[in-house]
Write a sequence for this structure.
């Protein structure tokens, strides 16, 4: 049999080239695994907060009705307990935050109107107390975070889009207007806190997904614009920033870094991006391994981040996923 040595040589070279290329592909860090899902009905656009290393979640929309049920998750024992219902109107698109050992939920949409009422949850008494209404216009799709002894709420929409921000002090039981967010008005932005600085990321306005990031320092009372989350410069650092911007993304913080995942850009998003506040840089991590979704809730306890509930097209979800950013990825069966 006549052998074409040239073809064999080319074939071997091709295999070697492919093998080298695969070896050069960078493995993304971080591992996801499934935990015990919410015992309540599946839902999207719910809201929650963390108190004493436990996660509280309630409200949301199940595809037919808006909800008032309220639950707490114990990560040490991986189980859920139902608590007294949220006392306000059933709603979705609210905000939640925790300040000085108590949780706060307010604003949102009841199916007809945007809302501005706010409530405080005391975990020791397992009871709710209504506090002063949010002082801005009623809205949903707002963003919120807490730093030290104050909570901060702003952006969102109703008939209009907003960029105003307000701070709530439990000690004085009052709200105050602070400097508005820089950049454009927006709804459904993501938020997290790192080293005493609050961050607002992306969101939606004017038929586009915002690509700016803003940092609020309560010690100065000012917002500072950080590097954009798109290929915005001629430098190399943002060459891969092609899929960070989104609306209804889920955020959490672990070990001094911020994480953004899930959400929508017209289609559902599953990628995970890690933010380093010292470098002001983003790095991609292992993608979320549950069903792609939007309007999920993100939270962190200890050294782990979590994603729960959400909506995948017309399917409403109740599953809970845990993320360790320091672990190597292991495929879920």
């Amino acid at each position: 049999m006549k052998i074409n040595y040239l073809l064999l040589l080319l074939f071997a070279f091709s295999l070697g080239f492919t093998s080298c290329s695969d070896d050069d592909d960078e493995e993304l860090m971080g591992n996801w695994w499934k935990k015990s899902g919410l015992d309540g009905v599946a839902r999207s656009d719910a809201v929650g907060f963390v108190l004493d290393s436990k996660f509280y979640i309630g409200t949301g929309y199940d595809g037919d009705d808006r909800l008032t049920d309220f639950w707490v998750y114990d990560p040490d024992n991986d189980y859920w307990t139902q608590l007294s219902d949220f006392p306000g109107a059933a709603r979705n698109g609210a905000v939640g935050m925790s300040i000085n050992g108590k949780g706060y939920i307010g604003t949102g949409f009841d199916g007809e109107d945007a809302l501005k009422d706010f409530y405080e949850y005391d975990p020791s008494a397992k009871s709710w107390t209504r506090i002063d209404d949010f002082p801005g216009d009623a809205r949903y799709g707002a963003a919120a975070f807490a730093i030290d002894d104050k909570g901060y709420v702003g952006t969102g929409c109703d008939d209009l889009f907003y960029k105003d921000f307000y701070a709530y002090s439990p000690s004085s039981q009052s709200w105050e207007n602070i400097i508005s967010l820089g950049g454009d008005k927006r709804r459904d932005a993501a938020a997290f806190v790192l080293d005493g600085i609050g961050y607002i990321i992306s969101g939606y306005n004017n038929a586009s997904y915002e690509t700016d990031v803003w940092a609020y320092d309560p010690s100065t009372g000012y917002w500072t614009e950080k590097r954009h989350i798109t290929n915005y410069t001629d430098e190399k650092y943002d060459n891969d920033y092609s899929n960070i911007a989104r609306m209804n993304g889920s955020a959490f913080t672990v070990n001094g870094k911020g994480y953004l995942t899930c959400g929508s850009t017209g289609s559902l998003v599953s990628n995970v991006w890690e933010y380093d506040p010292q470098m002001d840089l983003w790095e991609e991590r292992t993608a979320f391994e549950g069903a792609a979704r939007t309007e999920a809730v993100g939270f962190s306890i200890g050294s782990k981040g979590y994603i729960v509930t959400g909506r995948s097209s017309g399917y409403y979800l109740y599953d809970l996923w845990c993320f360790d950013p320091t672990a190597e990825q292991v495929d879920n069966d």
In short: Residues 1-25 have pLDDT under 50 and may be disordered. The chain has one helix and 26 strands.
